[in-house]
Write a structure and sequence with these properties.
The complex is a heterodimer. Chain A is an all-beta fold. Chain A has no helices and 11 strands. In chain B, strands 1, 3, 4, 8, 9 and 10 form a 6-stranded mixed β-sheet that branches. Classes of the chains: A mainly beta, B mainly beta. At the A-B interface, strand 5, strand 9 and strand 10 of A face strand 3, strand 4 and strand 9 of B.
Chain lengths: 115, 113
């Protein structure tokens, strides 16, 4: 299994531009999570999906952030317009079982720099 | 389980010695705990987990201890190796909150040869 796949691995953009981050979860997993990691705030959960349905987006910082999961094998996190304070590493994770407490497996992350 | 700021606590360990990494979690209702290892430039990697009905669980070279009375979790690494150098995070989750993990701030482990 290839594990969770994220693209791009690095993104440098200018303030005001739209940024789209992509994630392919592990095949057969039915929960998907988006996290943001910064030095100041550590790892923060932004949003998660069960069976392609957004369950909790309370961690999404602002309306500039949106996430979709059109099917079981693909999700996007979009920032529009981007701001320098959005610079961080964004991780996608997936989990196989719907029950509470099963392991989340993380992708390699996308390092976003907004100039 | 609250994240901390810029300064990560650091544990320096001599290669071959045992390491103990501690974590204080925030919610007494948490019923599942996970330790993750994060190497530079990579995503967090699952190490070991424990449910609240247990107080100890062992894996390969790692042991997790849970003390619910004082809301404390620890990770013990036996015979620490250079490849163990990384940042280690504990995470907790609450059954009533569904699948959300809350991560601690992390501890950096540096293994000295």
């Amino acid at each position: 299994d290839a594990g969770v796949i994220q693209s791009p691995r690095h993104e440098v953009t200018e303030m005001g531009q739209e940024v789209t981050l992509r994630c392919k979860p592990i095949s057969g997993h039915n929960s998907l999570f988006w996290y943001r990691q910064t030095m100041m705030r550590g790892l923060e959960l932004l949003i998660y999906f069960n069976n392609n349905v957004p369950i909790d987006d309370s961690g999404m910082p602002e309306d500039r952030f949106s996430a979709k999961m059109p099917n079981a094998s693909f999700s996007t996190l979009k920032i529009q317009p981007s701001e320098p304070r959005d610079s961080a590493v964004y991780f996608c994770a997936s989990r196989g079982l719907a029950g509470v407490g099963d392991t989340q497996y993380f992708g390699p992350g996308t390092r976003l720099t907004v100039l | 389980g609250e994240s901390v700021g810029l300064h990560l606590p650091t544990l320096s360990v001599q290669e071959g010695d045992n390491s103990i990494i501690n974590c204080a979690y925030s919610n007494s209702a948490s019923d599942y705990f996970i330790w993750y290892k994060q190497e530079s430039g990579k995503g967090p990697q699952f190490i070991i987990d424990i449910r609240s009905n247990m107080d100890k669980r062992q894996g390969q070279r790692v042991t997790v201890l849970l003390n619910k009375t004082v809301k404390h979790l620890s990770l013990q690494i036996a015979a620490t190796q250079p490849g163990d150098s990384a940042v280690y995070f504990c995470a907790e989750t609450i059954k009533a909150a569904g699948n959300k993990l809350t991560f601690g701030g992390g501890t950096r482990v540096l293994v000295k040869p």
